[in-house]
Amino acid sequence: MGLFDSKPEAQNSKPFQRQLIRRLVASWLPCLVLLAGCAVGPDFKPPETPVPPAWVGESPPPAAEISATVSSAAEVARWWEKFEDPLLTSLVERAAASNLDLRLAEARIREARAVRGAGAASLWPSVDSFASYSRSGTGDAAAGTGISGARGASGSRETDIFRAGLDAAWELDFFGGTRRGIEALDADLRAAVEDLRDVTVILAAEVALNYLTLRGLQRQIAIARENLEAQTRTAEITRQRFEAGFVSGLDVANARAQTASTASAIPVLESQVREAIHTLSVLLGSEPNALREELEIQGPLAPVPPRVPIGLPSDLLRRRPDIRRSEARIHAATARIGVATADLFPRFTLTGSLSFSGDTLASMADWGSRAWSVGPGMQWLIFDAGRIRWNIEARKAIEEQALLAYEQTVLGALREVESALVAYAKEQEHHQLLEEAVLQNRRAVGLARELYSAGQTDFLNVLSAQGNLFLSEEALVRSTRTLSLNLVALYKALGGGWEG
Question: Which of 48, 105, 178, 368 could form a disulfide bond with 196, CB atoms 3.0-4.6 angstroms apart?
Answer without folding.
Answer: 105
